[in-house]
Write a structure and sequence with these properties.
The protein is an all-alpha fold. It has helices at 2-18, 20-54, 58-108, 117-128, 130-161, 165-208, 211-226. Helix 1 packs across helix 2, helix 2 (20-54) runs antiparallel to helix 3 (58-108) and helix 4 packs across helix 6. It is elongated and about 80 Å long.
Length: 227
């Protein structure tokens, strides 16, 4: 757990230093998504059903629904800029920043480290997975903010309306956390086992597609036709 927290803190410092505005909006995006879902599917529906149950005037329900639609329009405007502009500008910067740190660290190491197959496999894996690791971190960060928002908003709602329901929410949150942790560990173990085999396959592919090998192969075919 300590190592995981250390890695997450390293990724956060790297990403926030490289693109602070993008990272702050990325956190807000996770909060915005779930809080809007909560307002729409919980508070608005509850109020509309209450109006129907107690025979309230139609304009009250229309006012609440209209107010929510207006709020949805307002928060959607910056979200469009985030999805279609900020993401495409910030992600390449994050990829570049991580790779630069990895290459700087690799340059400081002794050459004997590269004679160690285990270290070399891990280095190749780290470089090949650098962009995917940024994507996974951003996804994890967004999902974490969403989970916390769901837990707080739904928890407060259940405490005010049905305190027994908070038990169901808590159990679901804890169970999903441990299942996600188990799945991530399994994916990591599989990736580490497959990486040496993929490296050998890629090496063989590069050798067979060299120009000298291709020329020799064509020459052998021409000789075979003559004979």
């Amino acid at each position: 757990m300590k190592k995981v927290c250390s890695n997450l803190w390293f990724m956060w410092k790297l990403c926030f230093k490289t693109a602070p505005g993008f990272m702050l909006y990325h956190l807000y995006d996770g909060f915005r998504l779930q809080i809007m879902i909560f307002i729409e599917h919980t508070l608005c529906i509850q109020y509309v059903l209450k109006c129907a149950e107690y025979g309230e005037p139609f304009w009250k329900a229309l006012l609440v629904v209209g107010g929510f639609l207006l709020l949805m329009m307002l928060v959607t405007i910056p979200d469009g800029y985030y999805q279609h502009a900020m993401v495409y500008r910030a992600k390449p910067k994050l990829y570049k920043a991580l790779k630069e740190q990895m290459y700087e660290k690799a340059a400081e190491l002794d050459l004997s480290c590269y004679d160690n197959p285990k270290y070399y496999n891990e280095f190749v894996l780290a470089v090949s997975e650098s962009e995917a690791s940024i994507d996974r971190f951003l996804t994890f960060l967004n999902n974490t903010v969403q989970s916390i928002t769901i837990l707080i908003s739904t928890g407060v709602f259940f405490i005010l309306t049905d305190s027994i329901g908070i038990l169901f929410v808590s159990v679901s949150f804890v169970a999903s956390f441990f299942l996600a942790k188990k799945l991530n560990k399994l994916n990591y173990d599989v990736r580490m086992k497959v990486n040496p085999l993929e490296r050998k396959r890629n090496y063989a592919g590069r050798v067979f597609y060299l120009n000298d090998y291709a020329k020799e192969l064509r020459l052998n075919k021409d000789v075979a036709k003559i004979l």
